[in-house]
Amino acid sequence: MTCTLITGAGSGIGQQIAVELCGSRNLILCGRSADRLEETLRLVHGKSKQIYIWEYDLELVEGIKASLEAFLTANNLFVDGFIHCAGKMSVLHMRMADYKNTLKIFNVNVFSATEIVALLLKKRNKEHLKNIVFISAILAQFGAKGHNLYSATKAALNGLMRSLAVELAPEIRVNSVLPGGIRTPMSEAAFKDPVIVEKFRAEYPLGIGDTQDIADMVYFLLSDKAKWITGQEMVVDGGRTINMSHK
Question: Using an 8 Å Cβ cutoff, are 125 and 71 in contact?
């Protein structure tokens, strides 16, 4: 059986993508929290195709290949699409950064993706894989105080995407989606600040987006409607990055 693998499927953007895709695709939901994955299962109950749970903490990069390979083999599954939504953010000024914290962020945001892709390109699965979508961020293209490490990981993810798109064409398409300010559990602290919310409203010509906006783009990229699109950074930000009128 072929399935689409979604990391970070227990909340936020990953969870909404699972809801969007559940009626048309078999899914493998990856997350580190069993409770959050169960919440996603409740959201798709009654309207889904086959759904499998791969509970794994992507910070533990060294064990990813062995765990995923065993999971796929035990369930006789193949992956036709990989959507990397898992993300870790640490807002701090560069003088406070240290190698241990930096490694954790890169493990979840970048290195886990490279490990998963490498496994999916092995002989057993490669002929089934058709699409890879990385959930990046507009912070990969622009600077922001305190977001040094997060921005670096998302820029790295986009660089990986571009090279993979060339390497894996024409059989496999690879793209990134770059969301703007979206309310998710990871960004909830910022959205609790009325000053920041008002700033977002002023800077986003189309207003603040939500997770469904990102899920819609992912759905499109996985579809045949996007069959001539690869190697692209698809910005979904309500016009934030082209708005030069804000202070």
Answer: no
pLDDT in tens, 37-76: 999 999 997 777 899 999 999 999 999 999 999 999 999 9
Cβ-contact 17, 215 below 8 angstroms: yes
Q: Catalytic site residues?
A: 150
Cβ atoms of residues 54 and 68 within 8 Å = yes
pLDDT tens for residues 84-135? Answer: 999 987 776 666 668 888 899 999 999 999 999 999 999 999 999 999 999 9
Work out the burial of residue 8: count CB atoms within 10 Å of its CB; fewer than 13 is exposed, 13-18 middle, 19 or more buried.
buried
Look up residue 95 and give its two tokens: 């003088």
Residue 210 to residue 189: CA distance in whole angstroms? 16
φ, ψ dihedrals at 196, nearest 5°: -65, -40
CATH fold, domain 2-182+210-239, is Rossmann fold (3.40.50)
Closest CA to 182 of 1, 26, 12: 12
Mean pLDDT score across all residues of the chain: 91
Domain boundaries, the chain: 2-182+210-239
Which residues lie closer than 8 Å to 84 by C-beta, 6 or more apart? 7, 8, 112, 113, 116, 132, 133, 134, 135, 157
